[in-house]
Design goal:
By secondary structure, the chain is mostly helical. It has one domain. Helix content is 51%, strand content 0%. Helix 1 runs parallel beside helix 3 and helix 2 packs antiparallel against helix 3. The longest helix is centred in the middle third of the chain and has 14 residues. It is globular. The N and C termini lie far apart (65 Å). Keywords: Plastid.
Amino acid sequence: MVLRDEQNHPFYVRDRARVNELLTCQTPAAGDLVDLARFFIRYQGFPGAYDLQEDLTKVLQSWHMSNEALNQSTRRLWMSGDALETKIEDSVGSGFDTSDRDENE
């Protein structure tokens, strides 16, 4: 048995919950495809969260898709603007508005 030095990913707990949802999803919506593609990118080459990485592949297989087909689908979704249906609270970032707009205007 080979032991792996695993690192903890800061988004693991939140991502694990979403991946569990994706594992039960039979017909993916646009947001599901986008999330799966995002997780593949986030965890690609990451030295840890191996259980989650394996489940990403299981989701892809259950949807009868290849990684290339997933990437093509999500590219089309982003180009059409349909990828924006993903939940705001699930996206990465603080949500801080950096606009220069004066609130008194």
